[in-house]
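User: Please predict structures.

Assistant: First:
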Amino acid sequence: MKGDGERGDAFLEMKRKYPDQPIIGVGGIIFREDQVLLIKRGMEPSLGQWSIPGGVVLIGETLEEAVRREIFEETHLEVQVLTLVKVLERVFRDSDGRVAYHYVLVDFLCHCLSGELRSDSDAQDARFVNLQDLPSYRIAPITVEVISRADRLRRNPELWNSVASNGKFYG
C-alpha cells in the first residue's frame, strides 16, 4: 500500500476547501465485538471530531482500494471490505453561505485482517469504542447513524445483498 508520502501530485493539487466540484471519499466501519473503530480527525473539516477512518479516493483507485488504503494509512490495520453501508453527502458552508467543503462519501462495513492499531497520517488518535459510549464522543449524528446501520448489517449478513442491490442506500 502506498504510504502517506506517496499519494502523488493529484492528491496534493486537489482543492478541498472551496472545491470546484464534490470530492468522493470513502469510510470503513470496523467492529471488534461491541466496539467500533473511531479516529480523531486531524484535518478540516471537523478537525478534532471523532469519525470512522477514511478519506479521498485517488484517480485510478477503486472504492475498495481507497478504503483499504485510507484505513491502513490512518490506523495501520489491513481490512477486508465486506459490503456497502451507505452513500451520503457532507456539505459544509462558511458564514457567507458559500460551500467550503462538499464530499460524497461511500461507507463500507469492513473486517480487520491484521495489524496493530495506531493512529497515523491525518488521524490524531485511533481507538475502539464501546457502542454504548458513542454519545460521550464528539461525533457527527450522521456518523452515529452510519455506525448503527453497519452494526445491523454485521449482525444480519443475509441483508448484505439486498442493501447493495436495491438502490435504497442513498440518503
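Second:
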Amino acid sequence: MAQMGSVSNFSARVLLRPWCLNDADALFLLASDAKVACDAGFPAHVDINDSRRVIREILTAPECYAIVLREMNVVVGCIQLFTERERSVYEVDCLEIGYWLGRPYWGVGVMTEAVAMICRHCFQSRLFKASTIVAKVEHDNIASKRVLEKSGFALERNGERSEYRIGRENS
C-alpha cells in the first residue's frame, strides 16, 4: 500500500517523507543519543550498521516517515502511524502514533507540526478507515504530552503511561 508522497505532506519548515538507506548517517547521529533512545523506547545505536539495519527492517514500515527540516534538508526525527495488531494500518478503526526527535531540535515546535501533519493525512485521506488516533506517553515525558495537547489530543488516562486520543471530528 502506498504511503503519502513527500509532495503534499509538508509545512513551511517540515517535510515528512519515507526513510531511505541514504538517511543512515543522520539516523545514527540522532539515535546514538542515549536520552533520545531511552525516551523513544529503543536501544541507542552503537554504530552506523545499527542505523542501516533499523532503516531496512523497521523504518520502512507503512506510514513511517523521516521528519526533515526543509531549509537545511536534514533528518531530525521520526513519526509513524501503526497498530499493535497484525492488521494493516489502512484497515483498522483506531491507530497509534509514535514519534521521536533528535535532541538539537527539541522545544522549537517541529514535532507539533509533524503530529498535526500526520493526523491531517490520516483523517483526510481515503486510504485510512481510522476514526481515532491514540498516543501512549511515559508519565514523566512532559514535552511529549505538551506536543499532543497542542495538536488537539485529549488526555484519556493518566498513570505510568498516559494515554491521549484524538478523533476525526476533533482534528
